[in-house]
Amino acid sequence: MTPELEKHIRTFVNFPTPPGVAAHIIELAQDPEIEMGKVAKAVSMDPALTTKILRIANSPLYAQRRKSENLRQALVVLGLNATLTLALSFTLVRSLRGTKPNGIDYPLYWRRVLIAATAARALGEARRLPLAEELFLSGLLQDVGMLAMDQAMPELYRDTAKLQREHRALAEFERKNIKADHAEVGGALMASWNLPERLHRAISNSHTIQLDRTEDQAEVFDRCVSLSGPIADLFILSSEKRAFAETAQSVERSLGMDKHEFGQILGTVSGLIPDTESIFETDLRGGVNPELILEQARDILMIRNLQALREVNTLKAAANNLASRTLELEEEIPRDPLTGAYSRAFLDAYLIREFDNATRHVWPLSIAFADLDNFKKINDTFGHQAGDQILQATARILKSNTRESDVVARYGGEEFVIAFPATDAETTRSICERIVWAFQQARHDIGVLQAVVTISIGCATHSSFTPFQTVHEFIRAADQALYTAKLQGRNRTVRFEPQLLAPLARTV
Description:
By secondary structure, the chain is an alpha+beta fold. It has 2 domains: 3-303, Hypothetical protein af1432, CATH 1.10.3210.10; 310-505, Reverse transcriptase/Diguanylate cyclase domain (Alpha-Beta Plaits, 2-Layer Sandwich), CATH 3.30.70.270. The chain has 23 helices and 7 strands. Helix 7 packs antiparallel against helix 8 (132-141), helix 7 packs across helix 15 and helix 13 packs antiparallel against helix 14 (244-255). The radius of gyration is 27 Å and the shape is elongated.
């Protein structure tokens, strides 16, 4: 940032000073001769901070064979620099979250920066960078300029709810209004707080993604932070706006990680979300299931090579058009009135169209037949009202354990069919096994009793590896797999495999 631009920003933004505890931690961090005892004393003065340091020392991030029972043990596990950086993270978050927002969507803001901080750390560890906690802090503070500007200019972010979900567009909006974006403002703010240069440099550059290769550690540090925001967006944006392929390509070109390594990063971030939620006492998921996000990522990253983005975008467009095609068909074909699932007639029309699309474009299409195992006994024993209640619960369980692009339909009686567009066999099996597990855990209140209803599922995938000649042959394969699941003991998922299932099916 040029001196002229920084001066211009300061005329708009009256930078706050760090809170007392944070200022003390920053002062300690600047002492090259700092001792463990001084750090322990500073942290122990804040009981809540002590608790968080102990919790993170015992978290999966620092998995140890022996549990840290007290603050000194935790400091040994974490180290001086890590303790100071983490303490600063916790203190700043607590202080900044205490301010009253004017135009910022605070839940969205904190979800994004906390997931981004987790992603920055995961990227750094994958590249074997030291200073993992400083990467976390940089990711956490990369949007702090928004908080400063929101306080200094209360009207700036009013009526920008949509823009706040489009980070690039938000930055353009800021530059148009104050000639700088929140990354530049945040970097200048952190410099005024005397944070290490690598932190405020990374924050200032957090909107710039360099796509050339480098081994310079300072450059790699900055890139981990700048890529952490787009990765966080994959976890907070709606499914049709998640740019998996584009983000994966940026990570590959900027950090040299291939799509498989990128998938591992997403898995790491997803796995750490519960611990980050616990430590920072906030909801990072916002009602979104991280497992479904990972499955969507696997679908897109597996189906096309990252260099063939045109083909990827064709696939994504097909998935995005699913909702509009569905609405067109629904105008003529209503949902099942009892369960709210799609009707059998709708499903038949949908499968014909999707089977044709999958065949022409050579992408996979999967379906699953799902049948309740002990439904007839409960229906006969407790009556149709209890049976209807279980059918409605079944539709809810199926919908909550599938993705937005999947189609759940009632096929007839207690049988349902799920269609999985652009989904390979392994992902389909994983989703179906999660559904079986969900039914095993569910309890249905029937009068004064609680009933457990299990489900059997048979699935099939139409792809270049297992092509079917017609949609009817495709449907029969999934139905055959369902009956095989019944024969094998029920309460399970079976995938269609002709050489294994045909002999069993003939005995039905």
